[in-house]
UniProtKB/TrEMBL annotation:
SUPFAM superfamilies, per the entry: LmbE-like (SSF102588)
Domain of life: Bacteria
Record Gene3D superfamilies: LmbE-like
Cross-referenced PANTHER family: N-ACETYL-ALPHA-D-GLUCOSAMINYL L-MALATE DEACETYLASE 1, N-ACETYLGLUCOSAMINYL-PHOSPHATIDYLINOSITOL DE-N-ACETYLASE-RELATED
Residues forming coiled coils: none
Protein name in the entry: PIG-L family deacetylase
Length: 272
């Protein structure tokens, strides 16, 4: 049992990945008095159909800080280019120093199995850092961690080389408005870029209110994201009657490269 607040670090590739992948557990952790930091490996400087360069970098940084203020967490953006992240020594050692300085008890991140090269690189970088966090000769300018953090992968739908395995899951239905609000914080993404890139809808010239209404429509039409494996996990934890009521959930796979999940963390993950 920790005699201090648990420290959680969410590591994503872009300045919105952590927000949409961990909005519910972040809300739970902050309410429980935990200290939470989001880390983006890249500046997000490629994620827009028209904005470029420093304007986009600054816009996404401001959006990340708005989300951080809303969630009650801190947000750190590392200086790598969006769409060009690789599991290089430079990126590894930058991330290693970042993790050591914060000294998390648990890290949430994506698997190294994903459609996006930046996502894959991020998962690989966390894995590459996991053992070296405790090696004094690597990055000797930053004090080593004496205990390895738990590493949890957030849910993804990819099956090659292995499908995601939900070891823990919790309902997120009551936090859907949190997700809506953090997506509105990241307006350049969810009100501009993703409608254009994913939905083939160009909202240029629309008012802010009209863009928000478009996003609300997507929310209201979403039937849920609980797949069969997550439903089995929810049933195992809470019973079938409760699991059958859950439409939206967050789930995690325990990484073999991190520490074992403690009783305290397990209660934070699945306690209601």
């Amino acid at each position: 049992m920790l005699n201090r607040p648990l420290r959680a670090m969410m590591i994503g590739a872009h300045p919105d990945d952590c927000d949409i992948s961990t909005y519910s557990i972040t809300t739970r952790l902050v309410k429980a008095g935990c200290i939470v930091r989001f880390v983006s490996m890249t500046t997000g400087n490629a994620g827009h159909q028209t904005m470029r360069g420093e304007e986009l970098v600054n816009t996404r940084a401001k959006e990340a800080q708005a989300s951080a203020a809303y969630l009650g967490i801190t947000y750190e953006i590392l200086p790598f280019d969006d769409g060009r992240l690789t599991p290089s020594i430079e990126a590894r050692e930058t991330l290693m120093r970042t993790i050591r300085r914060f000294a998390p008890d648990v890290i949430f991140t994506n698997r190294a199995c994903d459609y996006h090269p930046d996502h894959r690189a991020t998962g690989q970088l966390v894995q590459d850092c996991s053992y070296l966090l405790g090696v004094p000769a690597i990055c000797p300018d930053t004090p080593v961690m004496r205990t390895t953090p738990v590493i949890l992968y957030w849910h993804d739908p990819f099956t090659d080389p292995k499908p995601f395995r939900p070891d823990f899951a919790r309902p997120a239905d009551n936090d859907r408005e949190v997700l809506f609000n953090v997506e509105c914080c990241h307006a350049s993404q969810f009100l501009d870029w993703l409608p254009w890139a994913d939905d083939k809808v160009d909202l240029a010239g629309k008012t802010h209110e009209e863009r928000v209404a478009f996003l609300r429509g997507q929310f209201d039409e979403n039937p849920g994201d609980v797949d069969e494996d997550v439903h089995v996990c929810l049933t195992r934890q809470y019973g079938k009657d409760f699991a059958d009521t859950v439409r939206f959930a967050e789930s995690w796979q325990v990484s073999e490269y991190g520490a074992d999940v403690t009783d305290e963390l397990r209660d934070l993950l699945i306690g209601l």
